[in-house]
Amino acid sequence: MPTPPKTRRPALLGAALAAVATGAAVYAYARRRPPLATVSHVDLHRYAGLWYEIARLPQRFERSCAHVTAEYRPLADGRIEVRNTCHKGAVEGPTEVARGVARVVDTATNAKLKVQFQWPFEGDYWILFLDADYKYALVGSPDRKGLWILSREPHMPLPTRQNLVKLAREKGFDVEKLIYTLQPVTDQP
């Protein structure tokens, strides 16, 4: 029986080594980023209520969502009830609701939470910016794959939105991939 050609082994070994080196380089780059800073304190009772999603980084669970809202309600046990609403395909599209619960993981600031929509999976929810009146928020995940710009109103003044996008860029998020969420038109003064 003839011996198989040996030229494939070095090529496969080279490809495997290249893949490992690339993975190591990506890991090393990710570790060089500074830790993601959150706000110094969140009053969860003031944070509670309805928020409109102004923009987000792409998320598979929000594919083709418009008129997205998140509603938070403190529970007696210290956790927070979460109700996310998405209208599929259009502002008036069919409604999908996801219900979950969040728990504070940093009680010194209340700015780092874990949100769970399906047991046993949890996601990071870090409050990165919150204006003094609790009207606008920037929320993200420490791996910088999740990012949301939120507002108490369906629309946000352009300068405010631009400042939050700039802040997200400074914190290491890929803001070029932001999806700006369609929200209903309202009568605004």
Task: List descriptors.
3 helices, 9 strands, alpha+beta, Lipocalin_ApoD, Calycin, single chain, Lipocalin, 189 residues
Helix content: 10-25%
Low confidence ranges: 7-28
Distance between the termini: 86 Å
What's the CATH topology name? Lipocalin
**CATH architecture label name:** Beta Barrel
Give the biggest beta sheet.
Answer: 8 strands, antiparallel, barrel
- State the domain count: 1
Give the beta-strand count.
Answer: 9
SSE string, helices as H and strands as E: HHEEEEEEEEHE
The secondary structure category is: alpha+beta
Question: What's the number of helices?
Answer: 3
Strands side by side in the biggest sheet: 1-2-3-4-5-6-7-8
Query: What portion of the residues fall into strands of 2 or more residues?
Result: 25-35%
Query: What's the gyration radius in Å?
Result: 21 Å
Q: Return the average pLDDT rounded to an integer.
A: 86
Shape: globular
CATH superfamily: Calycin beta-barrel core domain
What is the CATH domain class? Answer: Mainly Beta
Please characterize this protein's 3D structure.
With 189 residues, the protein is α+β, with helices and mostly antiparallel strands. It has one domain: Calycin beta-barrel core domain (Lipocalin, Beta Barrel), CATH 2.40.128.20. It has three helices and nine strands. Strands 1-2-3-4-5-6-7-8 form an eight-stranded antiparallel β-barrel. Strand 4 and strand 5 form a beta hairpin. The protein starts with 7 loop residues before the first helix and ends in a 9-residue tail after the last strand.
